[in-house]
Amino acid sequence: MSVVTVGAHIVDVLARPVESIPAGQDTHLLEQIRVTAAGAAAATAVDLAKLGVPVASVGAVGDDELGDLLVMIMGRHGVDVRGVVRKPGEQTAASVLPIRPDGGRPSFHVPGANLGLSTADVDPAAIIGARVVHLGGMDVTWGLHDPAFHETLRAARTGGTVVTLDLLSNMPELMPAARAFLPFTDHFLPNEEQALMMTGASGVEEAAAALLAEGPTSVIVTLGGEGSLVATAEGVTRVPALDVPVVDTTGCGDAYCAGFIAGLLDGRDVLAAARLGTAVAARVAGGLGSDAGLDGLTIGSFERI
């Protein structure tokens, strides 16, 4: 498999546009409601599959109807879901997202089965055999904070596997444990708030430099509407966001990761891969949900910039 994504798997129920929560039992009519595969592992896997990249996903869902739905959605889009384990008695992680007219996305969330994913659920051979392993949401998959899993990552990298890392939450208490994965990571893709919380830095460039010193060959900090910052040993480069109408910002970070990984597999350098990530994220921002706007596209659909 070209890519294996490991980590958070979530069902998202999205509705737009939501300006307020109705009082009592009143009803507001909306333009659109969708259910999507979400989470830093599952959403990235679906986006990669839509871009034509062979991808398998590893994670945990409950033995409930939401788990059935999530596995079905991912498989329908071409993701190999044999590594998604079912946890008896657990609820599948899920979010309800009322999307504001400006694309903002407050959320109601149940962490669910993600908290029960453990090293025993992960086949080391799948990790070691992949060209890229994407760690999505190591801050919330506490069962993978395990020296045995770290050793699997070390063995994979020794064999030539590239490891990318993205986080799920912006909860300060979860950042220190996630930081332990940096020595086993080639490319780290936090958002600005995560980077600042992990380092205590006063600015994003200072934060990127501090994170780079802990092991990755690149740190790519996503900055929302300001684009992203790419830091390597050669220096720091700002990549501007594309000017597109924003419908929903859900999953833009996951889409960025998918585009970045696809760029690496396409032979692009880190900066060019970041530009592809920017373009994929812009497409997703134009629709509802973490995979919006990617149907029928391939890596070749995006101009090499």
List keywords for this structure.
305 residues, alpha/beta, UDP-N-acetylmuramoyl-L-alanine:D-glutamate ligase, 9-stranded mixed β-sheet, 4-stranded mixed β-sheet, 9 helices, 30% helix, globular, EC 2.7.1.-
The CATH first-level class comes to Alpha Beta
Largest sheet: 9 strands, mixed
Give me the CATH superfamily: Ribokinase
What is the fold-level CATH name, i.e. the topology? Answer: UDP-N-acetylmuramoyl-L-alanine:D-glutamate ligase
Rg over alpha carbons: 18 Å
Measured between the Cα atoms of the first and last residue, the distance is: 27 Å
The computed structural class is: alpha/beta
Whole-number total of structural domains = 1
Strand order of the largest sheet: 5-4-1-8-9-10-11-12-13
The global form is globular
What oligomeric assembly is this protein in? single chain
The unreliable regions are: none
How many E-type strands? 13
Mean pLDDT: 94
Order of helices and strands: EEEHEHEEEHEHEHEHHEEEHH
User: Helix amount, in percent?
Assistant: 25-40%
Portion of residues in beta strands equals: 15-25%
CATH architecture: 3-Layer(aba) Sandwich
**Helix count?**
9
